[in-house]
Amino acid sequence: MLPIHQLSLSLYSSSRLLIQLIQGSLNELNLTYPQFLVLSVLWEQDGLKVNEIGKRLYLDSGTLTPLLKKLEAMNYVKRQRGESDERTVHVELTYPGKSLQTKVLEILSSINEEFAERGESKLADLNHSLVNLLKEIETIKKSS
Hints:
The protein is mostly helical and 144 residues long. Helix content is 72%, strand content 8%. The protein is built from six helices and three strands; from the N terminus they run H-H-E-H-H-E-E-H-H. Helix 1 (4-26) packs across helix 5. The protein is globular.
């Protein structure tokens, strides 16, 4: 059985290196990795509430709000308070925010190609394993 500290080290180191690799490309668009993650969630499903974005990214509103404010100042998203409940805030992509997806995909295409050369199915299997690991960690966290 793999000790948890070894798994943790492997995940942490791999994650940091991948983020650095992606961030290097995102710099061309003056976009940070956390901003990219928020936009990625909205590119998958636009018009989410702040707490829904937070759940998908495992971020609290204290971390997410400054990211959203910055993305709003960059004109990539707009935030709107709920009419029936002012505590809820809906986030929608603006036209520039939607258009940015194409630019990001173009910039990240070389990284995608590098990984594709190493085997699509291997990466799909790895992603599937990581999604399952995430679910296991969620279960363990809830029970403790």
